[in-house]
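If you are new to this repository, start here. Below is one unmodified record pulled from the training split, so you can see the exact layout before writing a loader.
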Amino acid sequence: MPPKLLFIYIHPSSFVREDIRLLEEAYEVVSFGFWSAKKPGPFEFMWLFCKQLLWLLRELPGAVGVYGWFVDYHMALPVAAARCFRKPALAVVGGFDAVSLPSLGHGVALSGWRRRIARMVFRRVDALLPVSSSLVRSKNRFSEGPEEREYGLRMLAPDTPAAVHVVPTGYDPGAWPAGPDERAPVVGTVGFVDEGRTFRVKGIDLFFDAARLMPDVRFRVVGVRNRETIAARYDLPPNVEMIPPVPREQLPAQYHEMSVYAQLSRAEGLPNVLCEAMLCGCVPVGSRVFGIPEGIGEAGFLVDEPDAYVVCEAIRAALRAADPALRAAARARIERLFHRDRRRERLLTILAELTGGRHVR
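And here is the target side for that same chain:
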């Protein structure tokens, strides 16, 4: 019988589901989703906290530890309970929990009560697992320019005694086939966009601005929930196609129709969609923000400032350079540095060290 590991999350995102599948290779994973179908109010929050507490009292005594995605309110009780039961607790730092961007309304530290809870979790957790080294400490002027600012968990919680292990998200190349070498000059991006804050955080406004300056090129956004509202509010350029969210298994077909993939986010960890697009042979263009440069490396083009003309220059350069060799280099970089097996190996090793268990291969 494999040891039991408690897994805590807010939303069942693709990276959450992938980690559950990965950890199930060595553990009996028992998960708790601290979420509801609609935005929770005070009573819904209280109900979720009570439900989580009862679940912890039932499951934690027989578990070897607690593992959670993101440092936020959903980890407060699990980390406190783990301390009481003398069980190790680990938290993945994914991006939102390591930044504070007032102009975008983005970051766990912007809310007073959530900032206090996050700092408590940072101080009491045994290990922090940021998906990018930039989420430990980094600077950029793309997010809230024009001056360079410092970000990262060391800024939000400088006194945390937790061990910090950078463990990038991992990808299965077999699930993301390379696709054709020859492609139409389509520039694409993927991101779930449903309101103004997300629109700016994901850099879709810059994507639209670049499209206006490049009327001869087709642009595509995949993942727009409120297409009519977004089109009316942001004056949709005629050369931009907006597609609603598609099932994950249909994303490779979307990537294969893009020659260049643009990730112009003002805040990100290590974007799944960027790495998936590169595996599928897209030439990447990205903002120099947090984990995006780590993903792209020398296999694409980086943008240093949120200026539409600078973005256009990078996209034009990527379209000119988009040949089979560069597509292969983009795929090879993700295969080499961010393979699913690398994340599996690191996570299972860290968990084994903390729980005193045997590392299962």
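Two things worth knowing about this chain: The radius of gyration is 21 Å. The chain has a mean pLDDT of 93.
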